[in-house]
Amino acid sequence: MRLGARRLSDPTKPTKRPSQKDRGVPVNKTELIEHIARQADISKAAAGRALEAIVGGIRASLKKGNSVTLVGFGTFMVGKRAARLGRNPRTNQPIRIKAAKVPKFRAGKALKDAVN
Hints:
By secondary structure, the protein is α+β, with helices and mostly antiparallel strands.
């Protein structure tokens, strides 16, 4: 193929990524607080405190090593990642990566059904 020549694309293959509309719009914390306030008919300040209380409760429970199950939504849990050998991408030297605890989330059946 010569320089600057265009190759005809295969009409059976999609030519572009799904649009932002097709993928959905990400919701940030402020928008979530606004939604909670509207749905619960409370002030944004109260909704913000409620959201912080929920997140703080989940965080505290996970820190203790417990899991949190919200029936119909999902389960937050702590997983373990084993120590492993990695590579420094800059120097290509091997490095040791320590074992770590990582938060995990498993969606419940109702949430999976709502998405599909």
